[in-house]
Amino acid sequence: MKKAFLCCLLLFALVMAKADTVYVADLARQISLKSLQKVAVAEVPISTHYKLPPEHAFRPFLPNYKSKSKHAYWLKITLKNNSGYRRQLYFNSSMCDYTFLYRKEKKSLIKLSVAGRLVTNSELPLKYNYLLLPIDLEENIAVTYYLLAYNQHVGAPHINFQLYNNDDLPFDDYRDEFKETVITLFFFGAFSFLSLFMLFMHRKSGQRIYLFYALYLIGAILYSLTRLSPITLLGAWLGNFPVWRIAFNEPAQFIFFALYNLFAIELLDAKKQDPILAKILQRLAIAYVLYALAYYLFNTFYLNQQMRNILFNVHRIILFPINILLIARCIYKIKSPVLGYFVTGMVFFMMASLLAVFSVLFLRNFDSGEPIKAINIFQVGLMLEALCFAFALGYKIKLAEQEKKESQQALILQLEANQLLTKQTNAILEEKVKLRTQELLLANQKIEEKKAKEVKDFFEKKLAQAETMALRSQMNPHFLFNSLNAIKYLIQTNESKMAISYLTKFSRLVRIVLEHSKTELISLESELEALRLYLEIESKRLGEQFHYEIKIAKSISTSGIQIPPMLLQPFVENAIWHGLLNSNKPHKVVNIILQKIPRKNGIICQIIDNGIGREKASLIKRNTMKTHQSFGMSLILDRVKLFNLQPYRKIEVSIDDVIKNEEIDGTNVSIKIYETTTD
C-alpha cells in the first residue's frame, strides 16, 4: 500500500514538474516571457533584493503584470533542451539598470552573468550588447534559472523580458552593430577631420565663422561619442562609464544646437540683416547650454527613464515648430547668397530627426526585420546638413575671394590708367613748357579774363542763393500762417479733439519744415514724408469726404533724388484750398503720382485733383474775400526759376486743366525734375 502511494506521489511530482518546464524545441525564435505562462515572478522591496524569495512568494508572470518603482523582481523559469543537441539561448534583459542571471543547483544559486544599462562593459557577458544574457543548455537536461531585475534610481524596472531561441543571435547582433558602426565611424572621422581643418582656418584667418563651424562639428562629435558602439576600442572604453553615456546623451544634443545657432548667426550675417533674429538665436543658444547643464546634473544623480522619455518627447514637440518659424523668418528677412544652402541643410536635418523619431514605427530593414537604427538616420541627416553648410561656407569664401580679386583687378587697372595718364600729362607739360615763353603774355591775359569770369559767376551764384533763401524764409511763415488758420477754424467749430490731434501732427510737421529750411537741398523721400504728414493734417480737418493717395513707381529711389525743400507742398495746398474746398463734389480727391521720364534722366511728379479747375478758382478768388493766403504759389515758382540757374539740375512746372466729358474736372500740376550731366 505504501509503495503504491509513493509511486503515485512521484508520478504527480513528475507531471507537475513537466507542467512548469519550458521545452526549447517548442519555442519560437523570439518570445516574451509573459506569454509562456510557465514563468513565475516574485516582487520584493528594493532594500532586500539580494535575497531569493520563498517559493510561495512566486506567482504566474502574466501579460498584464505591471512593475512598480522601488521594487525588485525575481523571475523563475525552468528550461529543458529537447532539441537533440547542445543549445545556446539568450535572455533580453530589457531596459533595466541591472539584471542578474542565476542557475539553481540543488539548494544553492550560482551567479552566471549580469547585464543592464548601468553595467560597465568589462562586466558584460557580450561586450557589444548590454541587454543579452546567454545560457548554455545541455541535451535533455532541465535547468531552473532566476532573473533578478531592479533599477538603482527612480522608476519602475521594465521587465518585459524576451527569450531568443537562436544560436546565431550573437552573429546577427554583431552584424547589425557593425552596420551601425560603419556609418558612425565614417561620421566620426569626417566630422573630426573637418573640425580640425576649420580650427586651422580660424587660426590662420582669425574669422569667427570658422571657429563656430568647428565648434558646431565638435558638438556633433560629442553626441556621436555617447552612441558609439562597444565593438570599437573607443566605444568599449566609454562603455565603462554607463552613467555618463546615459546622462550626457541629451545634453550633448543641446550643446550641439547652441553651437549650431552661433554658427548660423555668422553664416547668414544675421546681426546686420536681421538683428531680432540674431538676438533670438543667441538667447536660444544660452537657453540650450543652461538646459543641457541642468539636465546632465539632474540625470547624473537622479536617473529616471520615464522622465527622460517624457522630456525627450516634449523637446521635439517644442523645438520642431520653433525651427519651422526660424526657417520662415530666415527666408523672409535674410537676403544672403548662402541662404539656399542653409535652408536646405536645416530641412535635411529636420527630416532626418523626424525619421529618426518615427523609424521604429515606420522604417524596417527588409533583411532582418529589425528597426533601422535611429542614430544612423540622424547621423546621415547631420552629414547632409554639414555638407550643405560646407558648400555655403565655401561659396561665401568664393564670393569673398572674387570680390577681393575684382578689387585688386580694379586697383591694377586704375594704376595702369594713372601711369598712362602720368605719361600723357608729362608729354603735354613738356610741350607746354616749350611754348610757355611765346604764349606767356597771352596766357596771362586769358587767366585774368577767366578769373574775372569765375568771380562774376561766383557772385551771381551767391546772389541767386541769397534770393532763394529769402523766398524760402517767406515760404515757411506762409505755410505756418495757413496751418494756424486751419487750427483756428477747428477751434471755432468746437472740434476740440480734432484740434488737439491736428496740433500734435502740426508740431511734428513744423519741426520737419524747420529742419528742411536749414538746408539747400533735401531728398525726395524727406519731402514726401513731410507731404504725407501735411495730408494727414488736412484729412483730419476735411473729414471723410477728402481722399488722397501717393503712388511711387518701383523704379524710383526717392532717397537718391535731391530737390529744394517745400517744392511739392505748395501745389498740393493750392489744390486743396482753391480746387477742392470750393467743389460741391461728395468725394474730393488728390492723387500724387511719381514716375520715371522715359529715355531721360529724370522723374515727373503729377498732382491731380478733381476740383473746380483753374478758371473757376481764379474767378472765386477775385469775387470773394480771401480767407486763405495763396501767395505760396508765386513764391515756389520764383524759387524754381532761381533753382534752374544752378548747373546740372533743372525743374519744369506746368499746370493744366483735367478734361472729362468735354468739361473741366480738376487740375493737373506736372513737375519734371532732371539730373543733367557735366558734359
Automatic annotation (TrEMBL):
Q: Give TM segment ranges.
A: 182-201, 213-239, 251-268, 280-298, 310-332, 339-363, 375-395
Q: Which SUPFAM superfamilies match?
A: ATPase domain of HSP90 chaperone/DNA topoisomerase II/histidine kinase
UniProt superkingdom: Bacteria
For this protein, the record's PANTHER family field holds: SENSOR HISTIDINE KINASE YPDA (PTHR34220:SF7)
Task: From the UniProt annotation, give the residues forming the signal peptide.
Answer: 1-19
Q: Which Gene3D superfamilies has this protein been placed in?
A: 2.60.40.2380, Histidine kinase-like ATPase, C-terminal domain (3.30.565.10)
Q: Which Pfam family, an example, fits this chain? A: 7TMR-DISMED2
Alphabetic keyword roster: Kinase, Membrane, Signal, Transferase, Transmembrane, Transmembrane helix
A molecular function annotated in GO for this UniProt entry is: kinase activity
Residue ranges of domain 7TM-DISM receptor extracellular in the record: 68-149, 181-396
Q: What is the protein's given name?
A: Histidine kinase
The keyword Transmembrane helix appears for this protein: yes
| Domain (Signal transduction histidine kinase internal region) ranges | 466-546
